[in-house]
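sorry for the late reply, my laptop died twice this morning and i had to redo everyting from scratch. anyway the thing you sent over, i finally got around to it. pasting the sequence first so we're on the same page, its 104 residues, then the predicted structure underneath. double check i copied it right bc i was rushing
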Amino acid sequence: MSYAVIKTGGKQYRVQQGDVLRVELLNAEEGASVNFDQVLLVGAGETITVGAPTVAGATVSATVRKHGRADKVRIIKFRRRKHHKKQQGHRQHFTEVEITGINA
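ok and here's the structure:
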């Protein structure tokens, strides 16, 4: 089974065909296919191809399953004995994609 390491949204992901992962928000409709061209590494069995910085001509194709927002993260800043408390919440947007193929 071949695998690849791709870079998207400032993060790196190790993917195989059939994987479902959540990446940073992509500008694509649900059901559309997207290609990731920043492939840093491709491995198939015992052979591994490492890019410098990317593997030339390698792409990873995926299908957008859905868009959404992650669970709320609560940020609390508190100073004891100073009558100071600050609360904030944040929900990160994401795109859920399913990997359909690795072209090396």
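Strands lie at 2-8, 11-16, 20-24, 33-36, 39-44, 47-50, 59-69, 73-79, 84-90, 93-103.
thats about all i looked at so far, will dig more tmrw
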